[in-house]
Amino acid sequence: MLRTHSILLACAALCGIANAQPFTSPAGYLTLEGSSNHDYILFKYDEMRWQQLDDTSVGIAPTLVQRVSWRRDGTSAPDPTWVARTMDVEVVLSNSVPAAGVSVDFAGNYSGAPTTAFVMKPVNLPDWTQPPATTPAPFDLILQLDVPWVYTGQESFLWEVRTRNNTSGSDYGNDFQSVSGSKQSPNAGAAIGAGCIATGQSAAMALAGRLENQLTRFRLGYDLTNGPASTPAFVNIDAVNSNLSVPGLCATIVAVPTLTVPLGMTDATGAASVGLNVPQIPGLVGATIYAQGLAIDAGLGYGLALSNGRSNTFPTAPATPVGVTRVYGYRLPAGTMRAPSSWTGGIVTRFD
What we know:
The chain is mostly beta strands. It folds into 2 domains: 17-183 and 319-347, Jelly Rolls; 190-313, Immunoglobulin-like. 5% of the residues lie in helices and 41% in strands. It has 1 helix and 21 strands. The protein has one helix at 2-18, and strands at 23-25, 36-38, 47-54, 63-70, 85-95, 115-125, 141-151, 157-164, 174-177, 190-192, 206-213, 217-225, 232-238, 259-265, 272-279, 288-296, 304-313, 324-330, 341-344, 346-347, 349-351. The strands form 5 sheets. It has a 6-stranded antiparallel beta sheet with strand order 6-5-8-3-18-19, with no helix packed on it. The two termini are 35 Å apart.
């Protein structure tokens, strides 16, 4: 009897997933037109990474997602630049931090392990030069997933698109929905003192920091620049500013190594970065931490190059959480990568 009961429960769970209805991000736009269009980012550039974080579908029935699709903006006039194109596309699906906690550090937005649901391959995108006869337009940019993904409806989720080898550099008009709300800017902190001039550099070694309250956790990040090239680098983190001068050392010690975080090897320009997740402990809000970068540098005293110090204060949570946010970065026509940035609102996307 127990075995029969278990089988019935398992069948009910599977049937519930199988019969779940399609849903959209943002929620509620299967047959409703979005508020505007987004015709200048996604599916335009030769190389791009886009993440969209969504809180609006939390609470829906578990859904086995086997297909992702997009549609043309239905209210925009004919546009000769919205032509068909081919590009390599990859899709990643994952549970995520809440939308209000979106970070420009892409990896920091995952909650749990992400799934590469559509492996990178050439995709033919439809011609969207002409508007539909009626709105909204059909979801006709369709990707059948290689690896189905179960959205349980228990957490916020994200969809991520990575593209390359675009045959067209012109605009492409996706239906888009603005979502009101606010997202707290990361606490950038303040620089303390000045860093050393590392071997091979003409400007002082510098440490930038950012500290975000992502509702379920804090996200801490550091970016080191103008360090010695191709050498191990670290960040020391402390609860106080030591303000310690050591004869023969090229800069004042701000943070002693209460906690030392490896940055890995600096690149050819002397840059390195790290992102850290910090548990959401309410008592941390308002507390200040101090950090300082250091790198191995045989040309300086004690064989070390030090950055400026950096203070950061743990911020409060956003006052008005948003429902959908997005972060993206892309390769500019000149060949350089545009730094990632985050915004509210999202491209209307269907999952079924």
